[in-house]
Fold this sequence. Notes:
Low-confidence stretches: 1-17
Order of helices and strands: EEEEEEEEEEEHEEEEEHEE
CATH class of the largest domain: Mainly Beta
Helix content: under 10%
CATH architecture of the largest domain: Sandwich
CATH topology of the largest domain: Immunoglobulin-like
Number of helices: 2
Amino acid sequence: NRCSPGLSLSDHGAVSSYELTQSPPASMSPGQTARITCGGPSVGGENVEWHQQKPGQARALVTYGDDNRPTGVPDQFSGANSGNMATLTISGARAKDEADYYCQLWDSSSNNPHSGGTWVTPKSAPSVTLFPPPTEELSANKATLVCLISDFYPGSVTVAWKADGSTITRNVETTRASKQSNSNDWKSKGSYSCEVTHEGSTVTKTVKTSACS
């Protein structure tokens, strides 16, 4: 369920005695621009490289020497160095760009590499649609509500069904995201809701039974 609508940047801290300050936590939608900064004494005057490391893979160079890219790296990645700050810009960031990004440099006095990492991950709120039971089904003394959840990332959500605000679990099939009951159960309540929680945020869709009689 990778999709497009939050990127978060979280600091992994500095590495080695030459202190590099990583970007503070931030969030944005995939498709927008992510900027990761790397600060340190006179960083802008050093040879700065940015490396991408995806889970389970080796680090890959994405920019070097200010704004140069190795063959095969798309131009959505660009680097800039100035003063005490180096910046990696990821234009149109998507789920495929989820990775740890490391600033690496060689200070001219010791020629030793120093690096720190910033994790980049997209966050997309789910799209939730609640479908009420069709009138033909109600006429047959059956009622099926379907809660369609799509376009979310990372890939897990918690779903709760509620009737008149109270949580219900009977006749719920969470793998299919539907709520089944007979029409008497349906008519005995004023409303049904599908409550979807993703990454700490909740989206609720409600249908009133009076609108479907």
